[in-house]
Amino acid sequence: MLQFILKRLGLALLVAFTVSFISFSLLFLSGDPAAALAGETASGEDIEALRRLYGFDRPMLVQYGEWLFSALQGDFGESYYFRLPVASLIADRLSVTMTLGVCGITFALLTAVPLGVVAAIRPNSIIDRVALFISVAGQAMPSFWFGLILIVVFAIQLGWLPPSGTDTWRHFILPTVVLGYYAMPAIMRLTRAGMLDVLNSDYIRTARAKGANERRVLFRHALRNAIIPVVSLAAVQMGFMLGGSIVVESIFALHGAGYLAWESIARNDLPTVQALILIFSMFYIVFTFLADVLNAWLDPRMRSS
Amino acid sequence: MTEPLLSVRNLRLDIPTGGGTLHAVRGIDFDLNRGETLCIVGESGSGKSLTSLALMGLLGRSIKRNADRMTFDGIELTTASQGQMRKLRGARMSMIFQEPMTSLNPAYTIGDQLAEALLLHRKVSRPQARDRAIELLEKVGITAAESRLSQYPHQLSGGLRQRVMIAMALMCEPELIIADEPTTALDVTIQAQILRLLHDLGREMNMAVILITHDLGVVARVADKVAVMYAGELVETGPVGDIFNAPSHPYTRGLLRCIPLPGKTDRGAKLGTIPGIVPSLVGEVEGCVFRTRCPHAVAECRGDIPKREDGNHAFRCIFPDGKRQSEKELTV
Amino acid sequence: MATASTHDSLLDEITGPTPGQMLRKRIFGHQGLLIGAVVLIILTIIAILAPWIAPHDPYAQSLMTRMEPPVFMGGTWEHPLGTDHLGRDYLSRLIYGARISLLIGAVAALISGLIGTAMGVAAGYFGGKVDAVVTFLINVRLAMPVVLVALAVVAILGGSLQVVIMVLGLLLWDRFAVVMRASTMQVRRREYVAAAQVIGASTPRILLSEIMPNIANNLIVVVTLEMAHAILLEAALSFLGLGVQPPTPSWGLMVSEGKNMMLFEPWLVLIPGAVLFVLVLAINLMGDGLRDVTAPENRS
């Protein structure tokens, strides 16, 4: 097991570094960081001076190497815009994004799993069709549109919830729904398919033959097995949610890492963007890794192999 | 004479299909006394498994079950509520199935699943359940029982898993155990052991056993009573001695010809076959269901077939001996 | 006396329906597929005929007719859905917006399809090191936060139709690679591939004549899914201001432009989003339907 973990870890790190290298090159090939730093009114000489000062005239690999070395120690440089260490900038905002992500996936699980279970118990019934409809519609709806509609309906027309900001827990409700709904279809379908499959298994028949009641059969026996791939899927979806957070945070004016990403991109704040790309990809890698571990932990058959 | 533990009269099972109603089981009768072993014999699709599921109340929603009587220790099973059935299942009537490889839940340990069988019906503590599990694992011949408790099903072989299934079925000391082809999926060498085990346990615990099988050799070894099933009907029932020594129904005779019987079959003789295939059971079945394959069939086999009884031995045939002697032999 | 038609139907009875007939029956029996396809076709026709259907030039600004309400809010039929803050006819922009979405979706899907399929088939067919490299690249791509990277690149190169298409095309190949790789590996094991190799067929020939036809159905399904994905992504990018730039009439951009006036004129936000929803829904229905129809055993 340990060997398995180490090997996966090594591969994961390699992937992370490749991602950061690619994004570094992209940004490097972009514009001129010296020009961005110097500002619009700077002269050609000022820009040249800045370039030499920051070392932008050195070969890309050298610059990357330097950046990587610092990054590994937690130093991501200084933001061009804020003139503050990027690391602390991100650290401040990350809690908002993480909270949003956790709430989002929880919301998705709490709605999609029960829906999938019920749909599986009564296939082709009304509730099955409703679940299918929600799943298909959910995948087609643009998240920014959904967010705006929710704001119009709940915040403005009904006045139940605040439209933006992060002051109270109420502020997180709408963003959670917008972030979470995108993960619902896949989770629901997987739960439904898994339950349908499991409910036809022999060990369910055995459980009933032992005299277990339907609820016990459903939850302790069936769901316990069907949920295994769903948990992995949820972990992977969690990894994707960070990307989705950009849109959600900007619509609801939540000052998280996603919002920071958008701002930084718009301002050509390369160090921040660079760091965020690395961090987002690390999160994805961690979550997919977690998915594998959870899979092995929940399924005894995977453990011994 | 004491009341039989299990008494079934005119059990009928109908399955609605796209092309009409499939009459899977049509009016079977049998009794089973405490401590007796009944073997239900028949080919695949004869309805044997469905019958056992019907007894346990484990049929799917789409199958319609009807019977004049289906009593277990006086309790009428056809009208029993879900709650009543659940109290019986696993506690007083247990069942083990054909596929040991997939009949155990892969996510829980053997110990958990064994304990569950007991804890569902008796108010005992977990350690007590655990002890009983060990006791039963040993009874079914599993060594190092205590270490097995923390193992998972995938860590056990098919033979071991089936033994665990048997142990699980016995946790509450049931009065009846139904075994649906428990050894078909196992090695031949293990088969004999498992069947011996079932038989001995039945004797020891005064437990009635219904063993469903298509293997006549097995029947000869363990049965007290035999019921021969064909295409949803019981064509012949009786004590094991009668069935083997004086088989009356043409189908039973056909079956016995298919296997070599020590002492009866001559060396070098050809084993028999029963030509033809099982008829479709969709829609009404006229007369004797075996007539399409019976070497003695006559036109009258399309009509009502009388049940002929001689003590405990019963069979359905238009001929009193199950054989056509001449045209004049027809009696109603 | 048997006529030609009865003779044919007798023959049909003996030989049974052809695979083509069975496929056609499945296609027309599948509601989702039909609805999706019909809607998509309608929208495509609207997009193609835009210059003739749209009442006005979507780029024509007119400060005099700014912010006119739509017909159902007291406006005139001259501008059925009103005008935007620059006096441009809303309905015309909406119609031309279909062109943008469909164009981006189709071309991006095409580009990413080519890249992903090439990678996936190579990995599945050749295995070994090629597979290892491709799998690694897929993992790298999956680890990348797509929205973030897309935004960054567009910000660098400047937002425009071409840039957006290119960025999406270069980023969305992952599912193609994964699915084509799996399908190719499955097909590769089949005997007719071994047979072709034994008779000395060249690799390109085998790929084209044995492998491709058998993975084509999976390919079509993924094309539809990624097309929908590209359309949604472009809309999100444009909404955030880093996609297609004004004055190009992208639906995402229209939502963004409308959001400031959302309180008083909600249709400015509702309508473009709704048509996006309908388009993506149609494509998804079609994709799901195609999957069900070409391989019913894969139905989840």
TrEMBL record, chain A:
Principal subcellular localization: membrane
Gene3D superfamilies tied to this protein: MetI-like (1.10.3720.10)
Compartments, record wording: Cell membrane
Cellular-component GO terms for this entry: plasma membrane
Keyword Transport: yes
This protein's UniProt keywords: Cell membrane, Membrane, Plasmid, Transmembrane, Transmembrane helix, Transport
GO biological process, one term: transmembrane transport
Signal peptide: none
Domain ABC transmembrane type-1: 94-291
Name of the protein: ABC transporter permease
Domain of life: Bacteria
Family according to the record: Belongs to the binding-protein-dependent transport system permease family.
TM helices/strands, residue ranges: 94-118, 130-160, 172-191, 226-255, 275-298
Bilayer disposition of the protein: Multi-pass membrane protein
Automatic annotation (TrEMBL), chain B:
Cellular compartments annotated: Cell inner membrane
Chain segments annotated as coiled-coil in the UniProt record: none
Domain spans labelled ABC transporter: 6-256
GO MF term set: ATP binding; ATP hydrolysis activity
UniProt xrefs under NCBIfam families: oligo_HPY (TIGR01727)
Membrane topology: Peripheral membrane protein
InterPro entries tied to this protein: AAA+_ATPase, ABC_Ni/Peptide_Import, ABC_transporter-like_ATP-bd, Oligopep_ABC_C, P-loop_NTPase
UniProt GO cellular component terms: plasma membrane
Keyword tags: ATP-binding, Cell membrane, Membrane, Nucleotide-binding, Plasmid, Transport
Annotated PANTHER family: DIPEPTIDE TRANSPORT ATP-BINDING PROTEIN DPPD (PTHR43297:SF2), OLIGOPEPTIDE TRANSPORT ATP-BINDING PROTEIN APPD (PTHR43297)
CDD domains, per database record: ABC_NikE_OppD_transporters
Biological processes, Gene Ontology terms: peptide transport; transmembrane transport
Entry similarity comment: Belongs to the ABC transporter superfamily.
Keyword Transmembrane helix: no
Name used for this protein in its record: ABC transporter ATP-binding protein
Keyword Secreted set for record: no
From TrEMBL, chain C:
One Gene Ontology term from the biological process aspect of the record: transmembrane transport
Segments crossing the lipid bilayer: 32-54, 100-126, 146-172, 220-244, 264-283
PROSITE patterns in the cross-refs: ABC_TM1 (PS50928)
Pfam families (UniProt xref): BPD_transp_1, OppC_N
Keywords: Cell membrane, Membrane, Plasmid, Transmembrane, Transmembrane helix, Transport
Family the UniProt entry places it in: Belongs to the binding-protein-dependent transport system permease family.
Protein's name in the database: ABC transporter permease
